[in-house]
């Protein structure tokens, strides 16, 4: 990647000034991972920026060509490691489409409940770390207290706290225990009270609003041009949510929920505060979905019979089959494309990561802002480098 | 101070100059000792307050009871760390910057009155001296940022320069109303005035505003949140002290807590009564007519010493330190609640909000004093 | 006039929201609502499904190799010699430098002899000790030798080379013994 060009004299004034080249990252407290942003700065103002990614590249797509379909599921966990259930879901849906597997009803509802719980957990991290980026260190700990409850809930069916490997092609790995639904509903009650507290502490704080409103305004046309999805797109006013518009799980058709969009409450439409507020409201919508899911959860099997034999010998897809399935992740639209030639592994596996496209607008949003605003903008895009680099 | 000099002259039989030197030596070193122990305690307190606000526990292991030995352990660790100086750093400035920063703040302590007479020197220009000496640390911070040969440190230093220099204006202006009422800059006089006439913050409706303005400006001067831009962790890694490690780094940390104490001490003395209790209960902090020092220096017999008066005299520092810790606690509480302001917002706050209102309180207080409308007004 | 109103409104907003925020933090400061556990003095009870270190019921294992094939990172190595139905064990190691604790090795087992326990403390002093030997014995046991009476002379049984797999495996073995005792009690 070429370095940014520097100029050495400001012809407009008599003073000899030089632009400062500053590297934000790859080791930096607020780039949300190993991201390097090369900045050209004129004092405090950023005049140009260039994103440099690839520090977390782990060849996931190439590995996918060498392991079986089931063995790739743990690798999807590690792409967007904060929304592990949702990643597993996208991959499982792709494999099921590729092989024509039927998923039992109970498994679909459990998938929905677990995905929504993971969405809340992921948005809690976005909320907490955004507070730290702006300077408020306390909301992060409150967010993690809630996240701890979610992780303990999700640990019971899956066995792990963060990289679940629970939603597998054909259904889910195992059924939940008897008290799980009750505990999930208790968590929902607790969370609603805490959500009000987060707003008092951070969302409605005057300093926070001054730091995030009218900053990083992403217009609708730019968001659509760059392929942004998720809260980044919805913060700019576009009401597009795959759960409602292209339902990839049948239960989403049977529950009621709203899709929050940014409304320009404290500044222009599409600023950082709008994106942040979309995430906050999405957490409450997820609580709604979870409550309805728990009430309507049917009984039955949680894994297809075909899959239980898949554990013993890897399944093969038909020769020439290919499938593309997309899912609404907390960060946007995650999609997998798998092409099969009849073997136990796909010959091409492509992951379309939401953070990759969301990050692309950064080079357009940063110039003209100050360094503090730059950090606020990166935080509001809520990227995870694991899926940017895969 | 004179009492102590006489004590040494009497007990050791030394001449006036030598006993003066000894007296100052003892006082200054006990003050340094007190400051260091206070700083360690304040760091532990900050960690505990932060932890409990953040729904966690803070230090619990070191030393057993709630990790009280964490600060001394950290200090010991920092002493043993490798002393790194970045390549290309200006060695002299890098070396002198922490010293300048710490000495600038510490020198302000020589005028802080802990009780009547328990003060290193009661300068007639007390308030003015504190305001002036606190600005020496700015030079130290800029030196630290510049000499580190790192762009992040430079950012921190430049922001610091802009911020602290700007906030000295409302800070000093907000100290004028108490000075107007009391009519003197000597810090000891504030205490005696408030013992007679009640706390200055209640004196007229402009005083609470002035106290608030001074408190907020002093937060900016101490580089505490919400004004912690110069060391904004999430933007600048560590700001101007990014490249410092070991004992040099601990100087900056100490400086932050010591200046918190200094600023709280000024607030407590000027607005909240200093070492006296409200309505001058028990005459706390007032020197007795015949004290232990008089006995030790041979001016009075043991029977004549006013024991009760001596005890209330020595209770003065306790009351004072309690008040100071209330303000330090408020500063910590604010740090963990509020986000950080951006640098241009800091400037807007300083020049467009704090400074005009500080001038307004000065004018208002002058008006009230001239018309004699203050509560228990000064004749 | 609007900007004057904005000026005073911003003072009001600023102070008001700061005070409300301080109220929230003060409430948490005064409540004892921490969820922190003072590890290692207090530990949390793991759910029974927790994916921790593996344990092998060696007498049930039939050396089918399905767990090794299922592993996405190829961290299981198995070596055993088959004498008809009797197995002479040489090696069953899981390389914990590679294991990602994904649990894909558990479902394929046809005799359900490999399990994941709730043991998660696997820090060791050096990477050489990270490949954990799950065997409780190597070679043949006395009962296996008796079964093979008459066939070629097998080597005598020996306890596993690393003394039972070291501290880690002895802990895991103790856990298995405890599980067996519980099953025996039921």
Explain the layout of strands and helices.
The complex is a heterotrimer of chains A (390), B (379) and C (186).
Chain A: E1 20-24, E2 36-42, E3 45-52, H1 60-64, H2 73-77, H3 84-99, H4 105-134, H5 138-158, E4 167-168, E5 171-172, H6 180-203, H7 206-212, H8 220-225, H9 231-235, H10 242-245, H11 251-254, H12 272-296, H13 305-310, E6 319-329, E7 332-341, E8 348-352, H14 354-360, H15 362-365, H16 371-381, H17 385-389
Antiparallel strand pairs in A: 1-2, 2-3, 4-5, 6-7, 7-8
Chain B: H1 2-12, H2 16-53, H3 70-80, H4 91-107, H5 126-133, H6 136-147, H7 151-174, H8 176-182, H9 187-197, H10 206-221, H11 233-236, H12 246-271, H13 292-296, H14 307-335, H15 343-371
Chain C: H1 2-30, E1 54-56, H2 66-70, E2 76-83, E3 86-95, E4 114-116, E5 131-133, E6 137-138, H3 142-147, E7 158-159, H4 166-185
Summarize the structure.
The complex is a heterotrimer of chains A (390), B (379) and C (186). Chain A is an alpha+beta fold and 390 residues long.
Overall geometry of chain A:
globular
Strand residue percentage of chain A: 5-15%
Largest sheet of chain C: 3 strands, antiparallel
Q: Biggest sheet of chain A, strands in spatial order?
A: 1-2-3
CATH architecture field of chain A: Orthogonal Bundle
Which chains share the greatest interface?
A-C, 33 and 31 residues
User: What is the CATH first-level class name of chain A?
Assistant: Mainly Alpha
What is the averaged pLDDT score of chain C? 79
Query: How do the strands of the widest beta sheet of chain C line up side by side?
Result: 2-3-5
Low-pLDDT runs of chain C: 160-165
| Structure annotation, total helices of chain C | 4
Which structural class do the helices and strands of chain C define?
A: alpha+beta
Order of helices and strands of chain A: EEEHHHHHEEHHHHHHHHEEEHHHH
